[in-house]
Amino acid sequence: MSLLRIEHISKWFGQTQVLHDISFVFEPGRVNMIIGPSGCGKTVLLKCIVGLIIPEKGRVFFGDLDFLQAAPPQRRAVLQNLGMLFQSSALFDSMTVGENVAFPLRVFTQKSEKEIQDRVAYCLERVGLAGTQTKYPAELSGGMKRRVGLARAIALNPQYLFCDEPNSGLDPLTARRIDALIQELTEEFHTTTIVVTHDLKSVMDMGQKILFLYNGHAEWQGSKQEMLHSFDALPPNLQAFLQASGLTQ
Prior knowledge:
The chain is α/β, with parallel strands linked by helices. The protein is 38% helix and 25% strand. The protein is built from nine helices and ten strands. Helix 6 links the parallel strand 7 (160-164) and strand 8.
């Protein structure tokens, strides 16, 4: 699998700098988490990585490819290997569940209709929603919508899976189920998974390599074990973040 890394990413909106010289290497086959309080720049960084926002400085590499500088055909090839779960699930309300999951297959592949329907059925079964193809998003709960979003994100069997606040607005039990599903899919498909969250319980559930942002700065990176067992060595803002979560004394 091609390694994903970012180098010296900086981003301004007008006169306000929201990301400051951020570098990080995301590990394949693991859940990499970008954490920090609301408004620290997590989602902006995620959008910079996938090209939805162009940073003023810095580079994003998928393997040896400089993604932000690549020609459109090369960028398209990367996007075909990328799945994304948006915070709002971002389902098309006018499409059925099956049509939503099939959407990337129709855009990026030349599969036959039978192949598309077989893949849709598999992905929905994998997220525990077998037989829901004809339902519409309005008929689904928040947790079910998030699972449909995950089914769509894995439809292309991507190398990279991006999840933006996957538990936002969900009850605690459903949130933990979504965490478990993301971890299972990461292991099953050996994806490089990037999860943006401010939910420390998600970090405890599935975090493996962690980047902590504070006011747009990368203040710390390491493993969950290092974060929990070397508390006194952590930067003060991360200590405060952990204490506010109630996960440490």
